[in-house]
């Protein structure tokens, strides 16, 4: 594929779940602006993302977020060379807001549009400067929607080696947090509380599966039973120990599977890559920068550097895909 000039600027948009985000990235991997408007507080009362609520909020936020990214970089649309947008996978109504905005911007400025797979985006959080990580490597992608082991040979692609058979690791954190009476999103809350607990006070199971797949539903049930066996006073007293034990089991499952690949070059990306115990457990791995673990548009712009731009007006028929 013919590369763009290194100083070409990509305006990237991400709206696949509950973050509305825009970023400006150069083809050389320099991040010029990175704006993320999180909807966490909006969904917290429901203990999870409500798709219809997410779409409506994306609609309100998408233009202001793009404006803010351009302002942060001290530029305007005339200095943008391509528009990139997440087209899959995610909540369909949420994705459509970003895709429609991207099409409208690209069309009105006669720019090419680069459709990006959100999962490739997470991997590409490793490709921005100064990290600029080079394949080949084996990548653990652990987020709220996915938990996968990927074989990455080139920057524009990946091959799936293993995936979760039930819940994603981030989903396990979020559901565990709900059982413990903590807030949403749960990963960060469990991470903080676990630091005050004893990871060995409760024995939580790690699923033993053949191959490189993951399973977290048994662990979630084990936490449910542990919580049910405690009185409210006991639960309050043991909450940190439960959080520590539960987090420890998730981290063990992820680390064991990574090591089972036999890979020497290991990388970790996605929201769960922000977890402090996971980061500490993999001292030799390349970790996504903390600010780029949870959803953002910088990683989408980064992935777009390695993908084929769709010329005007071919992209007007482009669709978002949930899966
Ligand atoms: O990548 P992401 O923003 O969204 C998806 O693409 O799904 O990941 C969000 C997930 C949530 O489940 C959240 O609880 C989890 O990442 N997460 C964490 C931490 N920070 C965010 N999980 C464990 N420890 C953390 N520090
Ligand atoms: Zn994500």
Structure description:
The protein has helices at residues 40-43, 51-72, 92-109, 118-124, 169-179, 186-194, 217-228, 232-260, 276-281, 298-304, and strands spanning 9-14, 19-26, 31-38, 82-88, 113-117, 137-142, 147-152, 159-163, 266-269, 286-287. With 323 residues, it is of the alpha/beta class. The longest helix is centred in the last third of the chain and has 29 residues, at 232-260. It binds 5'-O-[(R)-(carboxyoxy)(hydroxy)phosphoryl]adenosine and zinc ion. The site of zinc ion has 4 residues, from helix 4.
Give the total of beta strands.
10
The unique ligands bound to this protein are: 5'-O-[(R)-(carboxyoxy)(hydroxy)phosphoryl]adenosine, zinc ion
Count of separate DSSP helical elements: 10
Q: Which architecture name of the largest domain does CATH use?
A: 2-Layer Sandwich
| Beta-strand fraction estimate | 15-25%
* Name of the CATH class of the largest domain: Alpha Beta
Helix content: 25-40%
Q: If strands are numbered along the chain, what order do they take across the biggest sheet?
A: 3-2-1-4-5
The SSE order reads EEEHHEHEHEEEHHHHEHEH
The count of domains is 2
Reported by name, the CATH topology of the largest domain is Nucleotidyltransferase, domain 5
Largest sheet: 5 strands, mixed
What is the mean predicted local confidence, pLDDT? 95
């Amino acid at each position: 594929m013919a590369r763009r000039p290194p100083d070409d600027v990509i305006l990237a948009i991400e709206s696949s779940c509950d973050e509305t985000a825009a970023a400006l990235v150069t083809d050389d991997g320099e991040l010029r602006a990175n704006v993320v408007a999180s909807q966490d507080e909006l969904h917290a009362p429901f203990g999870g993302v409500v798709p219809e609520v997410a779409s409506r909020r994306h609609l309100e936020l998408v233009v202001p977020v793009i404006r803010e990214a351009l302002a942060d970089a001290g530029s305007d649309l005339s200095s943008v060379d391509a528009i990139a947008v997440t087209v899959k996978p995610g909540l369909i109504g949420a994705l459509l807001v970003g895709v429609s905005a991207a099409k409208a911007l690209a069309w009105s400025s006669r720019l090419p549009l680069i459709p990006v797979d959100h999962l490739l985006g997470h991997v590409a959080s490793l490709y921005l400067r100064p990290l600029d990580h080079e394949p080949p490597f084996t990548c653990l992608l652990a987020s709220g929607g996915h938990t996968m082991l990927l074989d990455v040979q080139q920057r524009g692609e990946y091959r799936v080696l293993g995936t979760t058979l039930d819940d994603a690791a981030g989903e396990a954190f979020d559901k565990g947090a709900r059982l413990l009476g903590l807030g949403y999103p749960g990963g960060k809350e469990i991470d903080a509380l676990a630091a005050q607990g004893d990871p060995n006070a409760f024995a939580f199971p790690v699923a033993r599966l053949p191959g490189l797949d993951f399973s977290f539903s048994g662990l979630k049930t084990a936490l449910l039973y542990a919580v049910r066996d405690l009185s409210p006073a006991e639960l309050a007293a043991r909450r940190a120990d439960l959080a520590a034990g539960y987090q420890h089991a998730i981290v063990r499952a992820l680390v064991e599977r990574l090591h089972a690949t036999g890979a020497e070059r290991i990388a970790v990306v996605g929201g769960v890559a922000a977890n402090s115990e996971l980061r500490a457990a993999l001292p030799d791995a390349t970790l996504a920068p903390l600010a780029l673990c949870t959803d953002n548009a910088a990683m989408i712009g980064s992935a777009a550097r390695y993908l084929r731009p769709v010329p005007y007006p071919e992209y007007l028929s482009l669709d978002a895909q949930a899966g």
